[in-house]
């Protein structure tokens, strides 16, 4: 029996997932409520402070959010151009490599990729990517987002030519089949595919994936496309109030996303439960198919806060699907699932979620 230290950290939408062979498995999530577009140095400093506050726990795998240190809501190609990075170069990669080398771990970081076309072609393509970096600073895998959201398209992003991919990730002598999805990858393709197609989750299930890692910039259920300047000002004002840095290491809050909703008042300290439950709904094949003795760990790290007219959902979470049969109680309409929840952070907090997870 092995336990792995899971460190899921989100700031500016930044997850950190860590595996460590020990008698305890831990998952820490740090969420940042200041996802300012293009604020590299501020983002890096806050990420570093978050790791330092995780007293004594050195991660094995760090997963940061979608476009972790650049922000996400760029209005066009010209605006994102200064922040594009060639794979293996640039501030995002250098920061991820620094974390890997400093903490002797793997790091997954989202970034806006500039892919220079090979000769005789000219020009470049833009991808919304996430690169996995080894403890020695080498690139293990570079994943490009397959399903694009309208914001990706407005700044010139293209779909991955390879689609979803599964690869082997060795951590402390054990090999995990791993897949990365980025935000919209969890949704039906272009919101037009049948809901029950579950493209990403079915890919993971059919390819015997152990770790499904999903950095996101997912929007809050309190947000609307119809927001006016008054709405933006209202919610932005909530983020001007300083709240304590959240270090959540109490198992008693593991199932918080299943507790009843607490009315319509927006509370930064409470997860966006509708969003967190929707993520679970979108990986239906993880619990409606059986996979006895082969758990699937599902990690979502989301950004939080207000960026221009967008407000993100935070609520980074970790869920383990154990592989047993699920069933529907026809009397109550409740679905019973063989899974374990390992907590979630607030929809608008900075913090770290620490949990023990056995794999």
From TrEMBL:
One BP annotation, GO: protein catabolic process
InterPro entries assigned to the protein according to its UniProt record, in alphabetical order: C-N_Hydrolase (IPR003010), C-N_Hydrolase_sf (IPR036526), Nta1 (IPR039703)
Organism superkingdom: Eukaryota
Matching Gene3D superfamilies: Carbon-nitrogen hydrolase
CN hydrolase domain segment(s): 21-359
A Pfam family annotated for this UniProt entry: CN_hydrolase
Molecular-function GO terms, alphabetical: protein-N-terminal asparagine amidohydrolase activity; protein-N-terminal glutamine amidohydrolase activity
Protein name: DEBR0S4_12464g1_1
Organism encoding this protein: Dekkera bruxellensis
Source species taxonomy: Eukaryota, Fungi, Dikarya, Ascomycota, Saccharomycotina
